């Protein structure tokens, strides 16, 4: 559930902090007061699209924070574990900053994440149901996803297996069709790959080889200069027959200073420095001698190096700027060549493979279709039960299955699924998208949400003016339905209906105020007395009469009776 929400510099909200509780919370207020802005803020915490237009005018960035708690072993904690995000204290803090330049900064328990990760977590935490979701019912292409969501794990596993085979089938078919359509280009490309693979493979290229060869070539190109320098250093350090070298001279100086080292600490330090220099020069003499022994002129080796470097340069000109890039390209074309050769070898059998995969796919598709039809029967029964509670007991809801002759195999299965509806007895069943009114869509969507909320495990559900287009006893039925959902999940609800507001466990009033020539949104939790006045305002409009207050008080009393009755049933 969402425990606390903090919003700063967001649209017309300067600063807003609110604590939420379990049960059903309603947000009411005049149109334009900022009710939906609060829901927008929660939507951004759940990974919704953000833009600089959300940032309050005159500020650098909007900041939204939410503290959530979830049941142990729930979906959210499993996602956090997968992402390596700590949640040891049992709470999760989602934070999002939107800057004026459009940049987004997202954090989960202090860890920086991208918006995709935030959305992955947010989808398990919050389900926002607004009027735009009615549009999903108006889009038949969304109906199959809704059915699969209701069907749960059984259909999900079958669909996963189907889609894995479908991917193999489409790849094989594409390979076969490509080969048929491009026989000449196929052969030319195959020959080119063979040549390139052979050229790189025969070169036996090694990473770092060029640098090693260049260093060796430079030594051979500068053989005389290197030899002269080493000889000079050796003579300077070791001396000649007629004169001592630098090493012997330093040795004499060291011995002289060692003879007087005990007379003064400064003399001892000089002696130590000379000793260090003597041993360093002795080591250098050994190194120079070793290098002279290794030094050898080989004109044949120099020619060999030049030829090898030319081979490497030719490969780099064709296939990459370095040995590593050439070898990477080799791995790529070698794999492609292997696949094409395998395809060539099995070309006669490829058509048979495609046919076999198609048969397997159709068999899986039939299994998936059967499972969906079984789920559809259960969904229809569940929807009818919910619609009866919402005064649509004469309405018939059906899941309609069709198949396309021109495209019998789809990535989602073999079926096209669309919801059909009959609102009045004696009429024909017709596509829901073509005949349902706004009020009917609200009730059907609420029925679906009621059914899905029991299995989704989402702990916070938000209804943003889903009661539009209804009134009277239907409004009361919707209020009771939302209250019923709140018994299993935390519900936040924006409403203009007094019946819905009366059913709430917690009631907040949202209003706009002018502060220092700026518009700000303020949120106030209503007392029982204030609730009566607000519900009366919602019923009567601008002028709250004594009768309106009495009616509001009666609505609250009836709501308490309904909740008490449901509480007894649960016991």
TrEMBL record:
GO cellular component: bacterial nucleoid
Gene Ontology molecular function, alphabetical: ATP binding
Protein name: DNA repair protein RecN
Pfam families in UniProt: SMC_N
NCBIfam families: PRK10869.1 (NF008121), recN (TIGR00634)
Domain RecF/RecN/SMC N-terminal: 1-511
Family to which this protein belongs: Belongs to the RecN family.
DNA repair found in the keyword field: yes
Highest taxon in the source lineage: Bacteria
This protein's UniProt keywords: ATP-binding, DNA damage, DNA repair, Nucleotide-binding
Gene, per the UniProt record: recN
Species classification: Bacteria, Bacillati, Bacillota, Bacilli, Lactobacillales
GO BP terms, alphabetized: DNA recombination; DNA repair; SOS response
Family matches, as CDD domains: ABC_RecN (cd03241)
Species this chain originates from: Levilactobacillus suantsaiihabitans
Keyword ATP-binding: yes
Function: May be involved in recombinational repair of damaged DNA.
Cited SUPFAM superfamilies: P-loop containing nucleoside triphosphate hydrolases
Entries under Gene3D superfamilies matching the protein: P-loop containing nucleotide triphosphate hydrolases
């Amino acid at each position: 559930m969402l425990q606390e929400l903090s919003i700063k510099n967001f649209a017309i909200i300067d600063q807003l902090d609110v604590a939420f509780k379990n049960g059903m919370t309603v947000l009411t207020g005049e149109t334009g007061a900022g009710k939906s802005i609060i829901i927008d803020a929660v939507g951004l915490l759940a990974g919704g699209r953000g833009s600089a237009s959300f940032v309050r005018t005159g500020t650098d960035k909007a900041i939204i924070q939410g503290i959530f708690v979830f049941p142990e072993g729930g979906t959210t904690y499993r996602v956090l574990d997968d992402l390596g995000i700590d949640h040891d204290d049992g709470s999760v803090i989602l934070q999002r900053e939107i800057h004026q330049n459009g940049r987004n900064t997202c954090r989960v328990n202090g860890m920086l994440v991208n918006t995709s990760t935030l959305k992955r977590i947010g989808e398990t935490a919050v389900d926002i149901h607004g009027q735009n979701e009615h549009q999903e019912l108006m889009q038949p292409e969304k109906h199959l996803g809704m059915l699969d969501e209701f069907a749960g794990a059984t259909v999900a596993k079958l669909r996963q297996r189907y889609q894995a085979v479908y991917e193999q089938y489409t790849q094989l078919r594409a390979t076969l069709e490509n080969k048929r359509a491009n026989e000449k280009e196929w052969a030319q490309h195959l020959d080119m790959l063979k040549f390139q693979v052979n050229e790189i493979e025969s070169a036996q290229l090694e990473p770092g080889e060029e640098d090693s060869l260049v260093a060796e070539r430079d030594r051979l190109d500068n053989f005389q200069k290197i030899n002269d320098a080493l000889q000079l250093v050796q003579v300077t350090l070791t001396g000649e027959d007629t004169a001592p070298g630098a090493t012997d001279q330093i040795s004499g100086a060291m011995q002289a200073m060692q003879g007087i080292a005990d007379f003064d600490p400064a003399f001892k330090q000089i002696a130590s420095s000379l000793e260090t220099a003597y041993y360093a020069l002795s080591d250098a003499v050994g190194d120079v001698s070793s290098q002279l022994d290794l030094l050898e002129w080989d004109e044949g080796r120099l020619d060999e190096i030049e030829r090898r470097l030319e081979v490497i340069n030719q490969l780099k000109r064709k296939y990459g700027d370095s040995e590593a890039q050439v070898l990477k390209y080799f791995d790529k074309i070698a794999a492609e060549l292997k696949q094409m050769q395998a395809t060539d070898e099995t070309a006669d059998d490829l058509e048979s493979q495609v046919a076999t995969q198609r048969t397997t796919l159709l068999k899986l598709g039939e299994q998936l279709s059967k499972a969906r039809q079984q789920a559809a029967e259960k969904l229809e029964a569940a929807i009818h039960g919910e619609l009866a509670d919402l005064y649509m007991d004469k309405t018939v809801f059906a899941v309609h299955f069709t198949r396309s002759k021109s495209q019998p195999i789809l990535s989602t299965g073999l079926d096209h699924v669309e919801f059909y509806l009959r609102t009045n007895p004696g009429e024909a069943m017709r596509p829901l998208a073509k005949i349902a009114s706004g009020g009917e869509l609200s009730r059907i969507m609420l029925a679906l949400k009621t059914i899905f909320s029991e299995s989704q495990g989402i702990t916070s559900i938000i209804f943003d003016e889903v009661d539009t287009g209804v009134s009277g006893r239907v409004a009361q039925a919707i209020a009771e339905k939302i209250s019923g959902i709140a018994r299993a999940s935390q519900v936040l609800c924006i409403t203009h209906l007094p019946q819905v507001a009366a059913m709430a466990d917690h009631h907040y009033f949202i209003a706009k105020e002018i502060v220092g020539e700026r518009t700000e949104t303020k949120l106030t939790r209503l007392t029982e007395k204030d609730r009566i006045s607000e519900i009366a305002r919602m019923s009567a409009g601008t002028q709250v009469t004594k009768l309106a207050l009495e009616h509001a008080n009666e609505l609250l009393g009836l709501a308490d009776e309904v909740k008490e009755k449901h509480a007894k049933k649960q016991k």
